């Protein structure tokens, strides 16, 4: 795997590289990321990953500073799993960066309590897309709203990049893999797995969806010690709240804090 520690080093080589499939990350890699690399292998292109903890997308300085880092094992994992290129830019990637405003969908779900978060995500991705010029870019669907906003951004700006979503990878307990899980104790991890149980329970009641059901589930999570940001059933393309089970693409999505750690997850209730 070829590692580029600066943008200029990468750009210097870019013209001699094959078509690329891009997997952006903030490091602290786990099997969820590796599943995206595996998905990338289904396409003919060479694979490039990036590692950059983007401070523009953090609302909370503490959260940014505490974000888990494990560069050496990240490099090992990518190498072992067949990634061809790795770009690790320094903070100068943010110099005179063009600021992108995410669409109104960014104000829903995670956007309600994280103002500017998706602007920060799209701002850095737009820069990466310009530098890397990939044919394909792959995102995990655990961050469903991010996946949707990136797809919309690429479409609206006529960027010639195919955006692909990778399925959420879970621990045996159901807990969705996330770098933030490393900030949880073993006991907290067990509690955190209730998030998935709540989602699957809502799915098993999908023909009886009511606001009361969602309120009860929120209450249950609160009693377990979560601070629930949202637990919402919505249309997977507009993110508008909906309890209409006759619709295709109905999604149940949740964000909740356990201690200082914010966890998100979602599952589809009806097929897209
Ligand atoms: O999902 C992430 O890890 C980040 O939001 C991303 C896409 C790497 C942009 O910083």
Provide a concise account of the structure shown.
It is built from 10 helices and 9 strands. It is an alpha/beta fold and about 270 residues long. The strands form 2 sheets. The chain has a 6-stranded parallel β-sheet, sandwiched between helices.
The rounded Rg comes to: 19 Å
> How would you state the average pLDDT, rounded?
97
Helix content: 25-40%
Bound molecules: pantoate
Characterize the structure shown.
- It is globular, with a radius of gyration of 19 Å.
- It has helices spanning 7-14, 31-40, 61-66, 71-80, 110-113, 117-132, 144-156, 186-192, 194-204, 211-223, and strands at residues 2-4, 20-25, 46-51, 85-87, 136-140, 162-166, 226-235, 250-258, 261-268.
- It has a six-stranded parallel β-sheet, with helices on both faces. Strands 7-8-9 form a three-stranded antiparallel β-sheet, covered by helices on one side.
- 36% of the residues lie in helices and 20% in strands.
- With 272 residues, it is of the alpha/beta class.
- It contains ten helices and nine strands.
- The structure holds pantoate (PAF).
- Residues 24-26, 54, 57, 121, 124-125, 143, 146 line the site of pantoate.
Indicate the topology.
Layout lengths: L1 E3 L2 H8 L5 E6 L5 H10 L5 E6 L9 H6 L4 H10 L4 E3 L22 H4 L3 H16 L3 E5 L3 H13 L5 E5 L19 H7 L1 H11 L6 H13 L2 E10 L14 E9 L2 E8 L4
Parallel strand pairs: 1-4, 2-3, 2-5, 3-4, 5-6
Antiparallel strand pairs: 7-8, 8-9
Keywords, separated by commas or semicolons:
alpha/beta, 36% helix, binds pantoate, 20% strand, 9 strands, three-stranded antiparallel β-sheet, 272 residues, six-stranded parallel β-sheet
């Amino acid at each position: 795997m070829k590692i580029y520690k600066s943008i200029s080093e990468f750009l210097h080589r870019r013209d001699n590289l094959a078509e690329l499939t891009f997997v952006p990350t903030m490091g602290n890699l786990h099997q969820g990321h590796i599943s995206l690399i595996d998905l990338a292998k289904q396409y003919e292109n060479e694979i490039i990953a990036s590692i950059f903890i983007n401070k523009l997308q953090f609302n909370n300085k503490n959260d940014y500073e505490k974000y888990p880092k494990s560069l050496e094992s990240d490099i090992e994992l990518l190498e072992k799993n067949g990634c061809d290129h790795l770009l690790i830019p320094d903070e100068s990637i943010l110099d005179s960066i063009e600021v992108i405003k995410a669409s109104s969908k960014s104000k829903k779900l995670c956007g309600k309590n994280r103002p500017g978060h998706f602007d920060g995500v799209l701002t850095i991705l737009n820069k990466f897309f310009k530098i890397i010029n990939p044919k394909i870019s792959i995102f995990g669907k655990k961050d469903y709203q991010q996946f949707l906003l990136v797809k919309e951004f690429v479409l609206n700006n006529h960027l010639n990049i195919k955006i692909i979503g990778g399925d959420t990878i879970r621990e045996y307990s159901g807990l969705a893999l996330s770098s933030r899980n490393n900030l949880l104790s073993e006991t907290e991890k067990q509690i955190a797995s209730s998030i998935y149980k709540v989602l699957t329970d809502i799915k098993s009641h999908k023909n009886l969806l009511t606001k009361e059901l969602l309120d009860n589930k929120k209450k249950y999570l609160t009693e377990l010690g979560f601070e629930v940001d949202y637990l919402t059933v919505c249309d997977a393309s507009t993110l508008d709240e909906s309890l209409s089970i006759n619709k295709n693409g109905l999604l149940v999505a949740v964000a909740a804090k356990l201690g200082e750690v914010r966890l998100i997850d979602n599952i589809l209730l009806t097929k897209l």
